[in-house]
Amino acid sequence: MNEEIKRLDGRFAIYPLGLVLFVALLWLILSVGTSGQPSLSTPTIVSAATPSNLSAEIYRNLRSPLGILLLQILVIIVLTRCCAKVMRKFGQPEVIGEVIGGILLGPSVLGLLWPDASALLFPVTSLANLGLLSQIGLIVFMFVVGMELDTGILVKKIHSAVLISHASIILPFLLGSLLSLAIYKDYAPAGVSFTSFCLFMGIAMSITAFPVLARMLHERGLSRSPLGTVALTCAAVDDLTAWCGLAVVAAVSQQGTIANSLITTALCGLHIAAMFFVVRPLLGRWIDGCATGNSRGKGAIAAVLSTVFFSAFMTEAIGIHALFGAFLAGIVIPKKTAFREALAVRLENFSTIILLPLFFALSGLRTQISLLNDSASWILCGVVIFVAITGKFLGSAAAARWSGSTWRESLAIGALMNTRGLVELVALNIGYDLGIITPTIFTMMVLMALVTTLMTGPLLGLLVPDAHAVARTGKQWRTHETT
User: Fold this and answer.
1) pTM as predicted
2) CA within 13 Å, CB half, 79
3) CATH of the structural domain 124-473, one choice from 1.20.1530.20, 3.40.50.300, 3.30.70.1290, 1.10.1240.10
4) pLDDT tens-digit profile of 190-202?
5) Which among 110, 86, 106 is positioned nearest to 96, based on CA atoms?
6) Strand, helix or coil at 9?
């Protein structure tokens, strides 16, 4: 042992000599190089880093595009998580707190109370970078939503829930279309056709937030109860129908004419067919062959993410929206595999904690409550909320009662189907980006999404007082199908 230590000490003694040799050689290289260089103009020497110069340099660094983006991400994540935690204490879903956090950072609160801080934190030139990063977060989120959509439930329970699903889509769609007929002249953007505005308002009223609803049922122990199964099936059908309808609206609004929109819809149909009949089998074989082992697992993740961004790129290129492609990619991922479940958890945590709050902040920056500056605007906002609740809550409850459910079951299903949440915000931002709705209508619809989602928890608590007991026994809640 001592012999070995002595050998190590001898080798270590060479280390200082090596450092001296390195410095000498570097000095020699620099001396030879500088002696042969042409004369250079002497730069203006800035005085030593005084406190004022140092603070100015730090300020310039903070105002760089990367510095602004990093500061925005930090503030957004901290505030939205704090708001989400507060809302959780009141029994509300975290998405409500995150939306409120986004509104607090927007012109409705921060811009009104502290405009200088708002301009410093969210300069106009930085919103493009923030928007692109939030779109990446939405693409990942919609992919996870597509993965969580259990098409097996649709096949098994479609007959018992088809009446509720159709009623929860058709009635709010018709009411939204009637509302658009009344407000088109005064509130639609200039140059937007009535067809695009009408279809969008109908679809926006018909949306149910499938991810928020699924989490509510899981937290209350109702996911596997008869009530939860019917509600999940109806919400899944609603999601699929709403996104397909929104794709058609995007095609109509972008292409202008029915003929061009039909071509766009046909191209979208070809892409869907290719994803199901070509990409899905190939991806399944690739995952089965690569999902074991660390390096192979990385290969499978790379293949899946490539599929997501390929599908998003294709739908964006077709002229619909990248989010539809991401949602479709989630649906075609092979179900019931350990790889899929592990990937969903990782991507969901990353997107919901880091990227999605950026989307909430961007939505908050677009929400301008100050635009509702007279009684007529607030009355219309109340009408929008009333129409949304009437169409979705009462329509779903009436259809559930007609299908044989008890009144309490029917009202619980209506409350669940009335949940808008994050999916509504995604649809509203698509309509805003496409120029179909004005900032005023956007603000009214955001408030509608907040109110309808806030209603769900308290109503469900009243209608299902002991949800975990219901999930364990399954005796108090049974949907009675008509024969």
Assistant:
1) 0.75
2) 20
3) 1.20.1530.20
4) 888 898 899 999 9
5) 86
6) helix
